[in-house]
Write a structure and sequence with these properties.
Chain A: Keywords: ATP-binding, Ligase, Nucleotide-binding, Protein biosynthesis, Transferase. Chain A: Belongs to the GatC family. The complex is a heterodimer of chains A (99) and B (490). Chain A is an all-alpha fold and 99 residues long. Chain A has four helices and no strands. Chain A has helices spanning 4-7, 10-19, 26-43, 78-82. Classes of the chains: A mainly alpha (99), B alpha/beta (490).
Chain lengths: 99, 490
């Protein structure tokens, strides 16, 4: 069984944070590394469970995929959709220049 | 405190129907109660006095409608469930300014049934927590002892009902977030079968686990609420198209529990229970037996793996669901971003609290290349085995019974620095979400030392909420009521 030290370093937590589009301050990163290490260490006990040949269960009631006719429905106006935008020009969302 | 606010939902509804009291008078009584108690409790992120009074007056003008089972009844709604025109904050800075333009499906149904929304209820940020201490609007306090937590994440919804601010409320339960606060605040809480209530208009946390359900002061009240909010919705592809049973009417069809087998999962009783919790729960089992039920020991051998399985799946789903909060279409946006990446990163880092960031990071880690199979896929396989254990246990039983929480409500702040210990408080509730089964929690007594409420959890077969309601109702009738919260002034 691995120990939390080799599960997660501060650098590794910084990398995960970046993947998640987060950037915690250095002191928080250190705290997260310890806490995440504890949590992941606890998760390691799953290694004990034999799941040979067991299909993963992703939804508890295993719904069939629901299909409908491919018909567009207007459920909201452009104005409603833009009503919570932090920045818009009345027609589109505005974001910083990309290219 | 006005006696009006202490009535059950059913009793106030019947009074309203007989015109013994107007909807406006009932709303005024609840508002007075909210004003008297909420400074101390912080159960609501937003009381809605103007909206509620206007709606009450509109209802009064038309007169009682016998076809509307909640006509004139004040309720509260957890602040991650959309109510058109009212901020839906999820207890998070990132959504402080978000005002949905539509109602959640369950809200439309409750409003159509005549309910009046008197406030949005406080919660752990994005429903991530077991104590309602992570909201950006501050902690909610337990009405039985304001130095203790109400449980979470729907702690505001539970505290509001327990403190008589409203007659019922709605919460959501991803890993116990209705049942745990119901137990800790001494009210009834129901987590329906996954798919029973539409999730349209709920901000998603763990999509394959989340299910909305009611809180009430009696089992019958929650039956009335669940009946009103359930039903198929074509806007949620996981909402199930099957008839809703008349839960409240079916209560009268059972006079005792003869012929009913109650399974006691030994892993829920063997160890880890606080002695005062165990003693209250054991007495309630004697009552079940006295009502004619047969008790039978069963086993859920994978119980100790439920916590890691749950947190891997819930956090993986959370990291994916919360990717939508990027400062572009809604929610908080960081000031003067240098570029698009800077806009995403700063909006999210400034907007999300610590617990949410922790869960997003774990979710990102367990889904990342090289770890997906070891964590996420493995957890989904264990999940199937956990569900199979439940199906086997329920094969010879009508319901299962066990603890909701290993302890009574703990002191505020006691577990906030130890997330893992906090996660372990959900040990008895989260397997039911993994399996998609329904669960009902009702208060069965007060701890001898703490004087705090203890809730018994009943777990049923898929879509068999009726048996849970009938069992809970008969047990409730046979037990001494726990009375109103002792710790609350006003």
């Amino acid at each position: 069984m691995s120990t939390k030290k080799d599960i997660l370093s501060t650098e590794e937590v910084a990398r995960i944070a970046r993947l998640a589009r987060l950037e915690p301050a250095p002191d928080k990163l250190e705290r997260y590394a310890g806490q995440l290490g504890d949590i992941l260490e606890h998760m390691e006990i799953l290694a004990e469970v034999d799941v040979t040949g067991v299909d993963p269960l992703y939804s508890p009631v295993e719904h069939e995929t629901v299909f409908r006719e491919d018909v567009a429905k207007r459920r909201a106006t452009r104005e409603q959709i833009l009503s919570n935008a932090p920045q818009d020009d009345g027609a589109f969302y505005i974001v910083p220049k990309i290219v | 405190m006005s006696e009006l606010v202490t009535l059950s939902l059913k009793d106030v509804r019947d009074k309203l129907a007989r015109k013994e009291v107007s909807a406006r008078e009932v709303v005024d009584a609840c508002m007075e109660r909210i004003e008297a108690t909420d400074t101390e409790l912080n159960a609501l992120t937003r009381p809605m006095p103007e909206e509620a009074r206007a709606r009450a007056e509109a209802l009064d003008a038309g007169g009682p409608d016998p076809d509307k089972p909640l006509w004139g009844v004040p309720i509260a709604v957890k602040d991650l469930i959309c109510v058109a025109g009212v901020p839906n904050t999820c207890g998070s800075r990132i959504l402080e300014n978000f005002v949905p333009f539509y109602d959640a499906h369950l809200v439309s149904r409750l409003v159509d049934a005549g309910a009046i929304i008197v406030g949005k209820a406080n919660l752990d940020e994005f429903a991530m927590g077991s104590s309602t201490e992570t909201s950006c609007y501050g902690v909610t306090r337990n009405p039985w002892d304001t130095n203790r937590v109400p449980g979470g994440s729907s702690g505001g919804s539970a505290a509001a009902v327990s403190a008589c601010q409203c007659y019922a409320s709605v919460g959501t339960d991803t890993g116990g977030s209705i049942r745990l606060p119901a137990s800790l605040c001494g009210c009834v809480g129901v987590k329906p079968t996954y798919g029973r209530v539409s999730r349209y208009g709920l901000v998603a946390y763990g999509s394959s686990l989340d299910q909305a359900g009611p809180f009430g002061r009696t089992v019958e009240d929650t039956a009335i609420m669940l009946e009103a909010m359930s039903g198929h919705d074509d806007k949620d592809s996981t909402s199930v198209d099957r008839p809703v049973e008349p839960y409240a009417r079916l209560l009268a069809e059972r006079g005792d529990l003869k012929g009913l087998t109650v399974g006691l999962p030994k892993e829920y009783w063997d160890e880890g229970l606080d002695p005062e919790v165990e003693s209250v729960l054991s007495r309630s089992l004697d009552t079940l037996k006295g009502l004619g039920a047969t008790l039978k020991e069963v086993s859920l051998p994978l119980t100790k793996y439920a916590v890691p399985t749950y947190y891997i799946i819930a956090m993986a789903e959370a990291s994916s669901n919360l990717a939508r909060f990027d400062g572009v279409r809604y929610g908080r946006r960081a000031e003067k971003p240098e570029d698009l990446m800077d806009l995403y990163v700063r909006s999210r880092t400034e907007g999300f609290g610590d617990e949410v960031q922790r869960r997003i990071m774990i979710g990102t880690y367990v889904l990342s290349a090289g770890y997906y199979d070891a964590y996420y896929r493995k957890a989904a396989q264990v999940r199937r085995r956990i569900r199979d254990d439940f199906l086997a246990a329920l094969d010879g039983c009508d319901v299962l019974a066990g603890a909701t929480s290993p302890t009574v409500a703990w002191q505020l702040g006691a577990l906030t620095d130890d997330p893992l210990k906090m996660y372990l408080m959900d040990i008895f509730t989260l397997s039911i979400n993994l399996a998609g089964l329904p669960g009902l929690v009702l208060p069965v007594g007060l701890g001898r030392e703490s004087g705090m409420p203890v809730g018994l959890q009943l777990i049923g077969k898929s879509f068999d909420e009726s048996t849970l309601f009938q069992t809970g109702h008969l047990l409730e009738q046979a037990l001494e009521p726990i009375g109103p919260p002792a710790g609350l002034s006003g």
